[in-house]
Amino acid sequence: MVNSKLIDLLSYAFPFLLKGLVVTLKVGVLSTAIGIAGGLLFGILNSKKVKTKWISAFINFYVLIIRGTPLYVQVLIVYFALPDLLGINLTPFAAGVLALGCNSIAYVSEIVRSGINSIPEGQWDACYVLGYDFFSSMRYIILPQMLKNILPALTSELVVLIKDTSILSVIGLVEMTRIGGNINARLLQPMPIFLSLAFLYLVVTTTISAIAKKIEKGLTHGES
């Protein structure tokens, strides 16, 4: 009887949780795209081979603000304060993507900066000897090596970002955590519902980690 009730409960809850998972993944993918694009740009501009005084100061200040304040507060600022400041309207989805993306930029930029700085100086010298200009050196020699070095850190950032999407329930985004909370409020069955929620997050983050490890092995094999 207990098993039958549990199966009925999960059969009811899982379709809703999976719909929430789709929203979670959409937010995660778009936020990751923003984080990687902005983080790559900031990381390159703040690396020791490129940085200038004022640009570096701006990037360091941005990183300081983002890393020094809670993501929860950043989400509230983007959703409630930013529209008032700029006179625009943001949906919970747009605000969530923007908040998570801007947060990720700071962390990815530090990962990229340290990755570029870890490339030996001799690699740059060899590029210039072979006639590569700065952009060609960065594109064909430095960035591919950097990617292999920073892939584990980037994977960790992506996993954290996926889990951080749960914070967006506070601004009314109907993602997986919000849906789990709504189902529990209706059925009052926290154990199976929230364990199912945790299971889905675990499946997503484990899959991301497994794919990243496979890519890393491929990059290592390609060099051998």
What does this structure look like?
With 224 residues, this protein is mostly helical. It has one domain (2-223): MetI-like fold (Orthogonal Bundle). It has eight helices and no strands. The longest helix is centred in the first third of the chain and has 44 residues, at 2-45.
List keywords for this structure.
single chain, 224 residues, mainly alpha, MetI-like fold, 8 helices, 84% helix, flat
Structural class: mainly alpha
Largest sheet: none
From the 3D structure, determine the CATH topology. Answer: MetI-like fold
Binned strand content = under 5%
Count of β-strands: 0
Would you list the SSEs in sequence order as H and E?
HHHHHHHH
Task: Based on Cα principal axes, name the global outline.
Answer: flat
Q: Number of helix segments?
A: 8
Q: Could you say how many structural domains there are in total?
A: 1
End-to-end Cα distance, whole Å, is 58 Å
**Judging by the overall fold, what is the CATH architecture?**
Orthogonal Bundle
Mean pLDDT: 87
Helix percent reads over 70%
In CATH's first tier, which class applies? Answer: Mainly Alpha
Q: Whole-number radius of gyration?
A: 21 Å
- The CATH superfamily label reads MetI-like
Which stretches are poorly predicted, pLDDT < 50 over at least 5 residues?
none
